[in-house]
Each structure stands twice: as structure tokens, then as C-alpha cells.
Design a protein that fits this description.
This protein is α/β, with parallel strands linked by helices. The chain contains 17 helices and 11 strands.
Amino acid sequence: MYKRAEYQIITSRLKEPRKFIQVVMGPRQVGKSTVVKQVLQDLEAPYQLFSADNVPAGNTAWVSNCWAAVRSLKESKGLESMILVIDEIQKISNWSEVVKKEWDDDTFYDRNIKVLLLGSSRVLLEKGLSESLGGRFEEIRMTHWSYSEMRECFGFSLDQYLFYGGYPGAAELVSDSDRWEQYIQSAIIDATINKDILMNTPISKPALLRQTFELGASYSGELLSLTKMLGSLQDAGNTVTLAGYINLLNESGLLCGLQKYSIDTARRRASIPKFQVYNNALKMVYNPHTFEQAIMDRKEWGRIFESGIGAWIVSQAFVHRFEVFYWRERANEVDFVLRKKGTVVTIEVKSNAEKNANGLTVFREKFKPKTAFIVGDGGISAEDFLTMDIKNLFKDAIL
């Protein structure tokens, strides 16, 4: 079975002496549970795995019961250590307080129980971690599958990856567009919105949340003002409501609204958002073109190409903790501006020679980024860019 890079990270952490709770987080259907099961099977260390998927949210005693079961098993078998794994932990109300209590109890009594928590709702996980578990945990961030992974595991071509995105569960369904779309809708979009957002966050207009996602995903790779969005949505609220919904969609790994790059923070926040899905499948499920039709339509493929490159960039930003913006000034624009600890990298995406890249020159003169380059026609090939280690962009300049 294919093993993602996180397999080695989780294995290494669980082999270390007990020190931190390990928290594996990321969007739905990217293989978090699968890779953890692979690690547990290969480690040959005693463990117990529990899932909160069907546990009532208010049953906070359930977490303590899991802990008690592991302690009892460890003691009865005279084991030196055990691993406790809880999947979808964020579904339990007040989970972080219970985890803190049980972890601290093990620490006080020198019980060697290593803990691994998994969750698909980033917002709920990070809220609980910051509120109760400061200094007690480490994050292992997982994101959507890369082009390299989809090519190696499923034989995807570059064009297939840009069109169908990086969901492993949908890979074998691409020959049947109806089945593929149904999987993306039910297993990812519906599950994320209904289970990860609506069940855990007070939303006054659930229908508006879904419409916001559908419209934003359709416009992935493009600028669309919140005011214009309001005119296209039924039962619309106000721009503050939309901005809040976009933030929730971002924290759930579905859709983000990139801000305009500016030294002035206030100007960034007031800018028109550039919508970007985290996986291009989320855009294409609302696109009327088939794969064959899209390839033949040069203009349409240009939009798909830019959104696909952007999806990989924002997914990598989640894992490697860098910021992503766009930049635009009059007729000049840059598709993506990446920033980490003061280091700025600018990327222009060109699917064909018709699109000019003057914005890159203007941005370079104005802001002096460390690195500025084109992906696509006249620059680094999309295949090379999607297979590079993006962390290196913040270390060695590419001229």
C-alpha cells in the first residue's frame, strides 16, 4: 500500500520517548486515518484505536473511558508503554479539557502512554489546542495529495491532476464523471459542510454558506468582490457574514479568499478577495466542461491551469506555514505572492504565451522579492514546479 511522507514523521514521533501529544490534522479524505493505521501495523507496539465519529458530541466521558481502557490494558498485561489513538476527536464537546486532565494525570503518575489525536476540522482542533493544551502537543499537518503522489500511486498525467485534483478516493472514478462528481459532493463537500462546520458552529444561514462555497469554488483563481457576490446569492446577508463564512471554509480546507499583498495590513483586509480552492476537484465539480472539452478550450483550460497551480500552493502553505497573497495595481498583476518570516517569493502563472508577465517586473522593482519567476509558458514547467520542494523557495533564490 502507498505510504505518504507523513508515515515517516508519525513513525519517528511515536518511537521517541513520551513528551508531547501528537496531533494529525488536515482536510477530509486525504488519508490521515490510513497513514496512522499503516504506522501502527508496522510499529509492532501495543496500541488501542478509538473513533469519535458516531459518539454523541456531549458525551465527554467517552474520552476518559478510552483512556481508562488503555490504562487498564497496560496494567493488566504489564506493558512498559502503550499508544492511545483517538480519531475525529474534535467531535466531542470540551475534548481538549478532558485530554489535558488525562494527559497530566499520566504525566504525574509516570504512565508511559503515548497519545495520537486525529481530526478533520482544523478550526475546532486549533481552538481546543490553543485553549487548553499549550506546551503539551505537536502538530503533524497533512494536506491534499500532490501531483507526484497521484502520478506515482494512480498513474495520473499532469492534465488529469490539474483537472481532477488530488483526492485518492476519487482517483479510480475519473472514467465515470457522474460517479466522480457524486463522490466529491457527498464524501467531501457535504461531509465537510454538514459535519465539520454546521454541527459545530452556529450558522444563521446554512443555505448561504453552501452558496458562498459553490460560487467561490466556481470562481477559483479569479477576483470576485463580496459586494458582487451578494448580488449573485439568494437569501444574502452582508459582506461581514460572507467574510465569516469564507473564513470557516478556509479553516475546513475547502476554499480560501486570498488578500492583496500590501505592506499596509488595513489595505490587505479591505482588498477584493481572490478565491482559491484547496483542491481543484472542488472547482471542477461545478464546471460544465468534461475533461476532453476543457483540454480543447484554450481559455477555459487557462483558468483551470491557474486554479490547479494555486490549489497546490495554498495546500503547501497550510503544511509549511507560509502566507499566500495576490498583487494587482492598475493593469499589472502577480498571481501569487508567498511570504514567510519576511522572505517574499512571487509567482506568475502562464498557461499560454498570450498572457503578459509585466506585473512580475513591476512587482520586482517595487518590493524587491527574494525570488520571482513564471510557472508555465516561458518559465518553469508546471510539472517541475508541482514536483519541487516548495520550502526551498524560501532558502535559495531562483533567478
